[in-house]
User: Which sequence fits this backbone?
């Protein structure tokens, strides 16, 4: 008989509430953790979350336990779904380190770039006494939003989301454990592959920064992926994308380029990125961020572009375009995103050659 896995969902934002309700409606025992108790008090009092979903399941999902205590959240869980901004992965790892078991499966939803590497390295720094499996999804499974303090809405569920564990030899174990409730997850090869196929790193920060004047003048009242993608802006995105793909190639990863991704994800094609993005009908109607103080910059720069740039610097790839976007973000926000971001030092791989890095993510062994 298959084991019935118990879940903990860490994070009660848009995605966390949707995930917790979805799991609960499938009959899974779900503990919901949020570090600020007041943000989940209504969920605790009601005993669950109302989920609106165009397909099954939908309705009122009964949550087994709601807590702001990490030890309590992990005690009765087998699988831990981390659904917080990637800038919080470090803090979550520190908080969880004393309470993780060898049989825990921890999944970052998503990891952005280097998420699992950072989480794993943080557990080592915090002297975590056990060796849980840590894995990451390439992107978040749901398109969702919060509809109220104890309400969530799923607009769309992706049909296939690559996932990889560290080491990759344990990916099959993770997929087997989550398959009864998440058949959408597929083998993502390894955490370098999932991290460097992070398309948000290319589309989000540069597009926001290159439209900074328009965003500030209109509070984002324009179509982000249509009006904001002029031929010149698209050329910059193509440069960034080429650099990302080249960095991936330097460490043995064949990453999808932006045109391939648009064709695969949306069946949108074109002679160049400008045409392909304008041929993606799903982009029409999506407004720009209302402010530059937005996760497209504050999260994607340090957690997506900084690690790609750091990989490039370490393994001999020129990333002048990516560095220019990082610099613009630093100037506009008056902060050093490289210091705050995921560098090879922070990921614990600074001294590794390409061969040593690949061996580590594939087998977990260090030379």
Assistant:
């Amino acid at each position: 008989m298959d084991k019935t896995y118990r879940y903990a969902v860490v994070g009660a934002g848009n995605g966390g509430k949707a995930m917790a309700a979805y799991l609960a409606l499938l009959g899974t025992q779900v503990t919901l953790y949020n570090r600020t108790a007041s943000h989940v008090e209504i969920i605790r009092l009601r005993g669950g979350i109302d989920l609106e979903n165009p397909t099954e399941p939908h309705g009122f999902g009964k949550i087994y336990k709601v807590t702001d205590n990490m030890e309590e959240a992990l005690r009765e869980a087998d699988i831990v779904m981390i659904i917080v901004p990637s800038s919080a992965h470090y803090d979550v790892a520190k908080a969880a380190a004393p309470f993780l078991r060898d049989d825990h499966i921890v999944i970052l939803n998503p990891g952005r770039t280097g998420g699992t590497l950072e989480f794993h390295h943080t557990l080592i720094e915090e002297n975590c006494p056990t060796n849980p499996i840590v894995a990451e999804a390439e992107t978040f499974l749901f398109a969702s939003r919060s509809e109220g303090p104890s309400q969530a809405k799923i607009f769309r569920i992706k049909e296939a989301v690559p996932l990889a564990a560290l080491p990759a030899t344990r990916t099959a174990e993770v997929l087997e454990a989550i398959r009864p409730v998440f058949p959408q997850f597929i083998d993502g090869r390894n955490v370098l592959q999932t991290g460097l196929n992070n398309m948000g790193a290319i589309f989000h920060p540069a597009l926001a920064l290159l439209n900074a004047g328009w965003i500030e003048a209109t509070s984002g009242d324009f179509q982000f992926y249509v009006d904001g993608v002029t031929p010149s802006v698209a050329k910059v995105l193509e440069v960034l994308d080429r650099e990302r793909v080249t960095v991936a190639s330097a460490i043995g990863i064949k990453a999808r380029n932006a045109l391939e991704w648009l064709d695969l994800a949306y069946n949108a094609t074109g002679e160049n990125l400008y045409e392909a993005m304008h041929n993606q009908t799903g982009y029409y109607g999506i407004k720009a961020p209302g402010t530059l103080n937005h996760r497209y910059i504050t999260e994607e720069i340090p957690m997506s572009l900084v690690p790609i740039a750091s990989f490039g610097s370490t393994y001999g790839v020129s990333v002048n375009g990516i560095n220019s976007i990082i610099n613009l973000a630093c100037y506009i926000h008056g902060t050093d995103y490289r210091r705050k971001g995921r560098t090879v030092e922070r990921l614990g791989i600074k001294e590794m050659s390409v061969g040593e890095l690949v061996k580590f993510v594939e087998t977990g062994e260090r030379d």
